[in-house]
Amino acid sequence: MDPAFEEVYRVGSVDGADWEVFSRVSAVGFSQSGDLYVMDDQGGRIVVMSREGEFVREFGGLGDGPGEFAASTNTAIGFTVLRDGRTVVFDAGHSAFQVFAPHGEFERSVRMPGNSLYVIRTLAPAKDGQNVITTSVGAFDMGGPADGPERSFRPVYRLVLTGDEAVQDTVIEAWRPSGDPDGFGPPLVAGALPDGSLVYTDSSAYAIKVATRNGELTRVLTRAFRPERVTDAIRDREIERLLAENEADASSRNDRFGDAFAELGRRRIRNMEFYHEVPVVRTLRTSWEGTIWVQRRGDEPASDGPIDLLTPDGGYIGTYVAGTTEMPDAFGPDGLAAFIERDEFDVSSVVVRRLPVGVR
Fold this sequence. Notes:
Elements: E1 6-11, E2 25-30, E3 36-40, E4 45-49, E5 55-60, E6 78-81, E7 87-91, E8 96-100, E9 106-111, E10 117-119, E11 124-125, E12 132-134, E13 138-141, E14 144-145, E15 153-160, E16 167-175, E17 189-192, E18 198-201, E19 207-211, E20 217-222, E21 228-229, H1 232-252, H2 258-270, E22 277-278, E23 281-286, E24 292-297, E25 304-310, E26 316-320, E27 330-331, E28 336-342, E29 348-354
Antiparallel strand pairs: 1-29, 2-3, 3-4, 4-5, 6-7, 7-8, 8-9, 10-13, 11-12, 12-15, 13-14, 15-16, 17-18, 18-19, 19-20, 21-22, 23-24, 24-25, 25-26, 27-28, 28-29
Helix pairs in contact: 1-2
């Protein structure tokens, strides 16, 4: 397929107005009206644009007051927009979800249970209008992880935010590889369809699982792609690639801890455990209207490849060839899709494009 997406607008520039100079864009989302919400996590703010790209408002901020985010939050932030325009942000520094009304007014804070430090990096709306789903809840006490006994599965959580304290409800017990390998470990990625059904991938095979909103598996969507066995040569190339990335990250640090972090990274990479296969699927997302976007691996084991478009009942719409389009970072109504871009100086911008009717 040809990704002939119409560009609607783009925002984010070092030469732009003050509101569009972003420190770092970590996530984006749309409301049902087509407004775009941009999470500028280092700036501690949410910026809203109309469906035409005009500035509407910004809210949030760093601090300890109502509706403000702790300065440490940007290392572990989760963000999503509910269809009615309410915004949910996980504020790690305050160990709570900050919920904002559609027009940006602070609505309430929903704390996580206990006294642990929580890390939640991904959120998606549960499509029930008030709660969110995630596959990434990490809890830490002073002595280390506070997750309790090791589970035989990986959970997909529904986080219920209707009370003063969040309720962590496991809706899916996804497959867990033995040993929890770091190298080529099969990803657990989940999304929600417009009717509240859940879609997820949890293995090295091309097996996209569709479940009810309560987690009951209803079908598995497959394609005839098989995972590649991890050889010593593949393992060595991946370690070399990760070491190079580690050195590049260390050299970009401007603080006195750069050398220490670099050495910690080297040790972690050299001691990595590898899964025995390279997973076929790298990630997936669900569109506003329910199309499932599945990104496969590329020619190199750790590279992004083609993107398949599927219907929830297993229909195959088509494939975008690797390199012709990135995976959208958010989907909106009327075919709107947002893509986060970074230039060579790591300056963030967001491009909004309109998808053709057949792939929405």
